[in-house]
Amino acid sequence: MLDVAVIEDPAIAEVSLDPVRARLLAELAEPNSATTLAAKLGLPRQKVNYHLRTLEQHGLVELAEERRKGNMTERVMRATAASYVISPVALAAVQPDPERAPDRLSARWLLAVAARLVQDVGKLITGATRAGKKVATFALDGEVRFATAADRAAFAEELTAAVTTLVAKYHDESAPGGRAHRVVVAVHPSIPKE
Questions:
Q1: Packing angle of the helix pair 19-27, 45-57 (nearest 10 deg)
Q2: For 26-38, what is each residue's pLDDT tens digit?
Q3: Residues with Cβ < 8 Å from 145, sequence gap 6 or more?
Q4: DSSP state at residue 69
Q5: Which residues, at least 6 apart from 56, have a Cβ–Cβ distance to it below 8 Å?
């Protein structure tokens, strides 16, 4: 089972967003049968089987084992990933694009950049998984509390200068065999934890 699977296909995204199927995916972090899931969710077994077949056809669940029960064979299914992310690629023509909202101080531009990050890293994960390799990435996540808006503006200015200096120091356009990497730095208000 993968930690995270990236959904790029619109049909698979649609299947995963159905409320019953989303509940089944959550329950299938641990292998389970249609009978057990039906009892847990309070649904008829036939309805659960229908949704499981649809999830299986779209690669979101897989057969974990088959068990003989009397004259029947019980199929035990599990999700193919612990969690799923729907890439903006699934929205094709209406996916966010930073070029359409170039105001670097706007929340919409930040969201478009984040969408591009999900799309790019999703493609990297998908390709690396197929090739049986890992993707070299780095992320930094933290929180800072500003006393004033002026402090926040000064922080953004210093951060911009520091990142610009680092990029200038390490960027080598002519490096033979070099590989370009995207750098994304974002600052936004924290959402209080519930």
A1: 80
A2: 999 999 999 999 9
A3: none
A4: E
A5: 62, 63, 77
Domain count, the chain: 2
Tell me the two tokens of residue 62: 């897989």
115 and 141, same domain (yes or no): yes
> Which residue in this structure is represented by tokens 């698979």?
12
Domain closes at, from 84, 108, 132:
84
- Calculate what percentage of the chain has a pLDDT beyond 90: 60
Do residues 64 and 78 make contact, with C-beta atoms less than 8 angstroms apart?
Answer: yes
Asked if residue 56 and residue 113 are part of one domain, the reply reads no
Q: What is the pTM of this model?
A: 0.75
CA dist 145 → 102, 105, 149 (Å): 27, 18, 11
Residue type for position 160: T
